[in-house]
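tokens incoming
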């Protein structure tokens, strides 16, 4: 294979695979910070076929007895005709595939519904060949005939085997500096069993930035279509102009920060075939910009980084050695030391025999980024800063001095951990010039108070990130920075509004029912005073919402008390037996000059243990009637007291009366019954009523209950004088 075609293979693979290896590599061969890759039964070959010529690619196929193997042959010219030649020299084409039980499909674009990835999954013309059971392992030939092609074409063959032989490649670091060593580890398994004695090597290739000679110079609109009533999708191809010497197989990567929020671009990388000196070429695939009807995006505002493949370095991997001391474990490793910055693609190629003796061939890919010297920490120190007037601690200032070799946009982050395990993380962005620079992160006192314990605190995981428009690289890091100076919780300035931590919870019974009708939470608060609002949620310890509460009232300046009343019926229906949590507590009060001041705290208070059975579920309704029966003389009246007990969760109770006989008037002084209120019903018997016993129905309807009460009314004749 020529170096030119070999480099195309790297670009295809890099665009195809986004691998994640996890625990595939053994601990001794996957150092901390290693990337990870998926174990897959995959192999690939590429070649270039010139117009009028034929090229043949050899593939080692190892189908299982069940079959199901898939070949995907992608070409950049639809005039290229594909033939599959078996080890027995049977030449199978699209017209004869059915004779062999083969499913043969020709696709102009690989659809998203394909059950496997393809190297050119957004462009190209694909011949997809699905093999049935019964095909023998061995060497197959993929013949690409360009007699009818309009020009030269790339031929990329991907093989997805049905066998259990899988391979993956991992790099020990995704980001490293020039001169640092990266360990490349391949894992080769037959199902879960390591394969020993395989041949394994890695080809490493950098992508060289050629932005000084080549750039995206224009766009061609292919189509524009409505996605829905609010969005439009515009599809373009891009034109690349080369103002320098001939370059081959160019990639343009998109700066994804160069377009506004709400706009999506389907492709973050475009591929271009070879481009001659001082000429232009169109991208092989298209890309789509999806935007709002009223927010079109000019493609000329997009920013691209243009690169071409560099020289390939071959690295032999060994089954055991300095990076993998155990032999026969399926891990093959080697090392590479980059000398130039940029994005690198590493391709694993491995051949051998499965544990059952069937020959196989597999490829896998990994990528890593090599940076020029960026910046490094010189020192990190912390100091408590206090308010001169009050003497209270306002914040912890963490100062990092850094030595910057590459100017640009950076982000400094560091975490702080208390002795009880609670932690805080702070970040600060900065544009840094070359030389010694200072970065400061502040941890505010009110957040530090929420840690709940005195200091000193441990500063750890300090990181300095370089935010390149096309990439993000870790410039330097410190796992353990050291302790802060000692501090007491009582010395923190907690701001104009805060919870004091003086909390209490108690069940409330309003009418001697023996069950709690509500849960009352009292919380100490420090405010600037005035007409304030507070709200909060009642949850179980898993964070499931039970009830919410909010209230406006006047609070004194300084220390005060706020109360929450949560519905006992909801607590009973939640069925929680254990402590309850008051969460997402917000206290808002008017501040100086009328400006609002606010305190917000999660997990503000955890109560003692309660049983759901302690709370009233209103099984007989939250309404009582007294008396239950009465007698009335014609020409007179009697009263019934209708009383609600406990809080209402949603709305008032509606009262209706029915069943009164002709001549008896039922009059409610209110049609609605509010929380902990009493309504009087007056029954008046006129001379038109016939004496007797009458059942009168009173119905009380609310959001979470419906109670009916039958009142026995006896009407008697007025005694004769």
């Amino acid at each position: 294979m020529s170096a030119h075609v070999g480099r195309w293979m790297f670009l295809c693979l890099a665009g195809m695979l986004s691998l994640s290896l996890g625990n595939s590599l053994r601990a001794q061969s996957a150092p901390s910070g290693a990337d990870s890759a998926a174990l897959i039964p995959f192999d690939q070959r590429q070649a270039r076929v010139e117009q009028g010529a034929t090229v043949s690619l050899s593939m080692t196929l190892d189908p299982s007895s069940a079959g199901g193997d898939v070949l995907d042959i992608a070409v950049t010219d639809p005039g290229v005709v594909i033939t599959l030649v078996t080890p027995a020299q049977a030449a199978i084409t699209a017209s004869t595939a059915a004779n062999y039980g083969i499913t043969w499909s020709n696709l102009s674009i690989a659809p998203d519904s394909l059950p496997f990835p393809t190297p050119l999954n957004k462009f190209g013309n694909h011949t997809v060949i699905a093999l049935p059971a019964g095909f023998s392992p061995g060497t197959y030939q993929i013949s690409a005939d360009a007699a009818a092609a309009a020009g030269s074409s790339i031929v990329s063959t991907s093989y997805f085997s049905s066998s259990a032989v899988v391979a993956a490649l991992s790099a020990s670091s995704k980001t490293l500096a020039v001169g640092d060593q990266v360990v490349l580890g391949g894992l080769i398994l037959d199902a879960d069993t390591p394969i020993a004695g395989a041949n394994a090597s890695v080809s490493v290739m950098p992508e060289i930035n050629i932005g000084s000679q080549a750039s995206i110079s224009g766009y061609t609109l292919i189509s524009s279509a409505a996605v829905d009533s609010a969005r439009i999708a515009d599809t373009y191809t891009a034109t690349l102009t080369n103002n320098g010497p001939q370059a081959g197989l160019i990639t343009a990567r998109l700066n994804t920060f160069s377009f506004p929020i709400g706009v999506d671009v389907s492709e973050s990388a475009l591929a271009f075939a070879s481009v001659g000196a001082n000429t232009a070429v169109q991208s092989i695939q298209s890309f789509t910009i999806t935007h709002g009807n009223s927010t079109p995006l000019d493609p000329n505002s997009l920013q691209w980084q243009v690169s071409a493949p560099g020289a390939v370095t071959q690295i032999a991997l060994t089954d055991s050695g300095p990076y993998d001391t155990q032999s026969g474990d399926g891990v093959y490793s080697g090392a590479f030391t980059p000398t130039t910055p940029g994005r690198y693609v590493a391709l694993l190629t491995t051949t051998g025999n499965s544990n059952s003796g069937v020959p196989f061939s597999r490829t896998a890919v990994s990528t890593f980024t090599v940076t020029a010297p960026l910046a490094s920490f010189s020192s990190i120190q912390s100091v408590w800063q206090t308010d001169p007037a009050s003497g209270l601690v306002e914040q912890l200032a963490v100062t990092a001095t850094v030595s910057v070799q590459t100017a640009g946009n950076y982000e400094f982050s560091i975490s702080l951990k208390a002795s009880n395990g609670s932690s805080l993380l702070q970040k600060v962005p900065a544009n840094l010039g070359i030389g010694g620079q200072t970065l400061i992160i502040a941890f505010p006192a009110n957040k530090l108070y929420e840690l709940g314990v005195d200091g000193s605190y441990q500063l750890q995981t300090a990181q300095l990130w370089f935010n390149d428009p096309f990439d993000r690289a870790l410039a330097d890091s410190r796992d353990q920075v050291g302790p802060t100076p000692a501090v007491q919780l009582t010395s923190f300035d907690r701001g104009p509004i805060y919870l004091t931590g003086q909390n209490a919870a108690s069940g409330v019974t309003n009418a001697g029912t023996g069950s709690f009708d509500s849960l009352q939470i009292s919380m100490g608060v420090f405010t600037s005073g005035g007409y304030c609002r507070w709200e909060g949620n009642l949850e179980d310890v898993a964070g499931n919402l039970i009830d919410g509460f909010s209230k406006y009232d006047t609070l004194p300046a300084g220390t005060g008390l706020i109360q929450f009343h949560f519905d006992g019926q909801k607590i009973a229906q939640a069925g929680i037996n254990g402590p309850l949590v008051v969460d997402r507590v917000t206290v808002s009060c008017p501040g100086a000059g009328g400006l609002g001041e606010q305190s917000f705290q999660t997990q503000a208070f955890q109560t003692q243990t309660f049983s759901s059975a302690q709370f009233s579920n209103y099984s007989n309704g939250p309404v009582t009637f007294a008396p239950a029966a009465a007698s009335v003389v014609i020409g007179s009246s009697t009263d019934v007291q209708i009383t609600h007990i406990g809080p209402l969760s949603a709305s008032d109770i509606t009262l209706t009366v029915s069943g009164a006989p002709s001549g008896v008037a039922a009059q409610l002084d209110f049609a609605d019954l509010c929380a902990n209120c009493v309504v009087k019903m007056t029954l008046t018997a006129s001379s038109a009523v016939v004496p007797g016993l009458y059942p009168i129905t009173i119905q009380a309807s609310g959001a979470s209950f419906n109670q009916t009460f039958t009142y026995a009314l006896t009407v008697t004749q007025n005694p004769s004088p």
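note: The two ends are 128 Å apart (CA to CA).
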